[in-house]
Amino acid sequence: MAETKKPTLFLVDDDKFLIDMYSLKFSKNGFDVQHSFDADDALKKLRDGMTPDILLLDVIMPGMDGLDLLAQIRKEKLVPSTVIIMLTNQGLADDIERAKKLEVDGYIVKAMTIPSEVLAEVQSIYNKVTEHKSPKKNS
Q: How far is CA 122 from CA 17, 47, 74, in A?
């Protein structure tokens, strides 16, 4: 019997506590979790060929922020089939609008969402996007 491939999740956030918490939450729920603490490290991993199924980006990080990172990822066409979700405390309309212009698949405000809700929302967005991108199956 073939084993189902775990979806890979790449979490980019400068907060070690949040990285640890979400890594545990997602890995216990069937995800293979990788992480970076800053945009430069994340870019290096993506340029070196990492192709996660889901990319979770924080907005506020030292150096390059998550939206600038997303703009660079789009410019270089690094992970065109990856589901990209902003996971941030930034709920300002300007940030959300900028993320939409960069064709983000989802936007979750951490301060308004408990970890189990983040997990459920990420799974929901991932399922919707992958369903939409995959060819329709006959029922």
A: 19, 24, 20
> Please, are residues 25 and 56 in contact by the beta-carbon 8 Å criterion?
no
The C-alpha R_g of the chain, in whole angstroms, comes to 15
- Cα 101 from chain centroid (whole Å): 16
Phi, psi of 134, deg, nearest 5? -85, 150
> Which token pair is 96?
């959300």
Nearest-CA neighbor of 122 among 5, 13, 11? Answer: 11
Instruction: Collect the ranges in the chain with pLDDT lower than 70.
Output: 1-3, 133-139
Contact 67, 99 (CB under 8 A): yes
CA distance 78 to 43: 9
C-alpha torsion sign, points 80, 39, 91, 76: negative
